[in-house]
Amino acid sequence: MNTKSAAAVLSALLYAQALLGFAGLAAVLLRDRAQTYEVSLASDMPSGPSVLVVR
């Protein structure tokens, strides 16, 4: 394998690894944000009997 094709393969692998790392980081951040949002929704809900009556 000549030097230019080896450099191209290495560059492609490093680029793919960077994309996977970015996707992993985004997934972790979005998961934490979603869990925080669910906790805030749960804390906004009133505790006790509901005031809604279905007829």
Question: How many strands in all?
Answer: 0
Class from helix and strand fractions: mainly alpha
Number of domains: 1
Number of helices: 1
CA gyration radius, whole angstroms: 24 Å
Question: Which whole number gives the mean pLDDT?
Answer: 80
Percentage of residues assigned to helices: over 70%
Strand content: under 5%
* Inertia-based shape: rod-shaped
Detail the poorly predicted runs.
none
CA(first)-CA(last) distance: 78 Å
Query: Oligomerization state of this entry?
Result: single chain
Compressed to H and E, one letter per element, the order equals: H
* Biggest sheet layout: none
Characterization of the model:
The chain has 55 residues and is mostly helical. The chain is built from one helix and no strands. The protein is rod-shaped and about 75 Å long.
Concise overview:
With 55 residues, this protein is mainly alpha-helical.
Tags for this model:
1 helix, rod-shaped, mainly alpha
Blueprint of the fold:
Elements: H1 3-44
